[in-house]
């Protein structure tokens, strides 16, 4: 027949077989093949194929076969639509351009939600328990218990833990036995103590201490430049005379010294940062990824100059003084420790994600500003020359814009509506150019700003939603019967050979009773990603009973009576 009936989630759809053949290689195209009744869940009584899938999404899928245009439903979550497309064997790139942005929104939201992972207060304990259970060889039992290791496994994954045992997360010396057990038990706890402020109460105290020392270090760095904490001293140093045979001469050097107590405070802060850095790198599950982190690089670069300065402070050679001068310049890296606050404040992380997501808008803004600066700097240079004194060739007497590069500075200040007032036009033509420059700057900056603000609002709302999301409880998902259990769906044994006719009194010939082609399992096996492998055999399209029916009945069991068996 030319028509075919497909029952999806209880909703019957009827179409032509030729319609399903428009997309060969897909699941629906397989329904038109001669062996489709054996490969799929086919009901001969109703003459229909059954799929336990989302009926609303299937309507859009079927319309794609009819019209050749795939649209995304507005009332369906993006991941669900993506999963349904994968089930029916349709490529996501076939989605129409009008619905592509709507379809892609869920992936952007998922990436943002993953970056704002909600902290789990019991995460460190679960991770440690998971490590202990792994050491005891209890993974299967814990998994069978309904999720004892599921939540802990997610916590281990969130904390970037790998399976220890000589790998990146193993003990430093690669030792096994009791040492490996100790390492597995305490590594996730110590790592969470310094990495995840929400893992335990002790981790919160460590986070508060780290925040305190960061603020103290930055405050000390700023006070070191204040004249109230600086002492200028004259030191007389006796050095050899450059003239051979001349007696040594005294040279007076002017040195700038900081208050000693600021140095002591900075030393205490550096000791804490050193301790924190060593603990984190020791118990880090992946040393390579740890060293690649920009925040960890800032930690290391901010700590080293202090120790080098302390080690070279007693030397008086010129080379040592040059190195000390360089180290004092490098100490400005200490101010970058403020970025470590992103571990504790969601708003700073939101700002970082917003800047990364708005890279294209920032580049567009820079290009617009560069074009405007070039155009208006050139215009103001020639506009100020109109009506000038012919004898004043350089324009030194009547204008500030002696050349075009100087006009670049004026154009930037004007387009950003800053207006320092150090340079301004003096002629009517120059004032007209200045007005146009200011208007162009307002319009140029106003165009990409709404996109950046929308990105910040989206990331901030997602971050707040992730933090306020309630902790998911372990859902009861029944596991398929396991081998050895009473409900396990065992294949039928091969039929025994027919019994010989009983030669006693009243022998009765055996009467065969044919079993259904589905064996003991019946039609109740689940399908889909959580189905047993027996129900997903073959290409993944066939149900268990469908695959069995292609092989024919499994045989007959004779039943006989009479005689003295």
TrEMBL record:
Superkingdom in the source lineage: Eukaryota
Topology of this chain in the membrane: Multi-pass membrane protein
State a single Gene Ontology molecular function: delayed rectifier potassium channel activity
* Annotated TM spans: 362-383, 404-421, 433-462
Tell me where in or outside the cell this protein is found: Cell membrane; Presynaptic cell membrane
* Compositionally biased residues, Low complexity: 546-558
- Its Gene Ontology biological processes? action potential; cortical actin cytoskeleton organization; protein homooligomerization; protein tetramerization
Q: What's a single GO CC term here? A: presynaptic membrane
Chain spans, region Disordered: 471-565
Keyword list, A-Z: Cell membrane, Cell projection, Glycoprotein, Ion channel, Ion transport, Membrane, Phosphoprotein, Potassium, Potassium channel, Potassium transport, Synapse, Transmembrane, Transmembrane helix, Transport, Voltage-gated channel
Instruction: Please give the Gene3D superfamilies that the UniProt record associates with this protein.
Output: 1.10.287.70, Potassium Channel Kv1.1, Chain A (3.30.710.10), Voltage-gated potassium channels. Chain C (1.20.120.350)
Domain BTB, which positions? 2-106
Could you tell me where the Pro residues compositional bias lies?
491-501
Please give the catalytic activity noted in the UniProt record. Answer: K(+)(in) = K(+)(out)
UniProt xrefs under SMART domains: BTB
| PANTHER family reported for this sequence | POTASSIUM VOLTAGE-GATED CHANNEL SUBFAMILY C MEMBER 3 (PTHR11537:SF184), VOLTAGE-GATED POTASSIUM CHANNEL (PTHR11537)
Q: What is this protein called?
A: Potassium voltage-gated channel subfamily C member 3
């Amino acid at each position: 027949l030319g028509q075919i009936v497909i029952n999806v989630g209880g909703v019957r759809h009827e179409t032509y077989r030729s319609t399903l053949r428009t997309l060969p290689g897909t699941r629906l195209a397989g329904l038109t093949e001669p062996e489709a009744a054996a490969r799929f869940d086919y009901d001969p009584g109703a003459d229909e194929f059954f799929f336990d899938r989302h009926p609303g999404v299937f309507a859009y899928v079927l319309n794609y076969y009819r019209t050749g245009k795939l649209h995304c439903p507005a009332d369906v979550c993006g991941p669900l639509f993506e999963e349904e497309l994968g089930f029916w064997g349709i490529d996501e790139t076939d989605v129409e351009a009008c619905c592509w942005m709507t379809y892609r929104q869920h992936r952007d939201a998922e990436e943002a939600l993953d970056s704002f992972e909600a902290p789990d207060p019991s995460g460190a304990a679960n991770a440690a328990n998971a490590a202990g259970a792994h050491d005891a060889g209890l993974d299967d039992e814990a998994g069978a218990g309904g999720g004892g290791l599921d939540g802990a496994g997610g916590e281990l994954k969130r904390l970037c833990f790998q399976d220890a045992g000589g790998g990146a997360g193993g003990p430093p010396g690669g030792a096994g036995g009791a040492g490996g057990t100790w390492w597995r038990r305490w590594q996730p706890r110590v790592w969470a103590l310094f990495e995840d402020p929400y893992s335990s109460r002790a981790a919160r105290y460590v986070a508060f201490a780290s925040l305190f020392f960061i603020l103290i270090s930055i405050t000390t760095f700023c006070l070191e430049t204040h004249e109230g904490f600086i002492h200028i001293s004259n030191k007389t140093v006796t050095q050899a005379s450059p003239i051979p045979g001349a007696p040594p001469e005294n040279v007076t050097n002017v040195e700038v010294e900081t208050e000693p107590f600021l140095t002591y405070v900075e030393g205490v802060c550096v000791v804490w940062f050193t301790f924190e850095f060593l603990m984190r790198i020791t118990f880090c599950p992946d040393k390579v990824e740890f060293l690649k982190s920009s925040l960890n690089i800032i930690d290391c670069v901010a700590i080293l100059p202090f120790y080098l300065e302390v080690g070279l402070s007693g030397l008086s050679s010129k080379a040592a003084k040059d190195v000390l001068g360089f180290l004092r310049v490098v100490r400005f890296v200490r101010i970058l420790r403020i970025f470590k606050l992103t571990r504790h404040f969601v708003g700073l992380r939101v700002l970082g994600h917003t800047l990364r997501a708005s890279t294209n808008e920032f580049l567009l803004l820079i290009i617009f500003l560069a074009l405007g600066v070039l155009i208006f700097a050139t215009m103001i240079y020639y506009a100020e020359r109109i009506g000038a004194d012919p004898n004043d060739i350089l324009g030194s007497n009547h204008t500030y814009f002696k050349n075009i590069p100087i006009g670049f500075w004026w154009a930037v200040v004007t387009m950003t509506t800053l207006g320092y007032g150090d340079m301004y036009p003096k002629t009517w033509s120059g004032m007209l150019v200045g007005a146009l420059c200011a208007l162009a700057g307002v319009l140029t900056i106003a165009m990409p700003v709404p996109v950046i603000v929308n990105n910040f609002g989206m990331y901030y709302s997602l971050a707040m939603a992730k933090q306020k999301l309630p902790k998911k409880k372990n859902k009861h998902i029944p596991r398929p019967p396991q081998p050895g259990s009473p409900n396990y769906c065992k294949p039928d044994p091969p039929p025994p050979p027919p019994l010989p006719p009983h030669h006693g009194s009243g022998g009765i010939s055996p009467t065969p009773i044919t079993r259904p082609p589905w064996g003991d399992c019946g039609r109740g096996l689940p399908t889909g990603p959580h189905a047993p492998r027996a129900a997903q055999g073959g290409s993944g399209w066939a149900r268990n009973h469908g695959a069995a029916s292609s092989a024919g009945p499994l045989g007959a069991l004779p039943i006989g009576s009479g005689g003295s068996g």
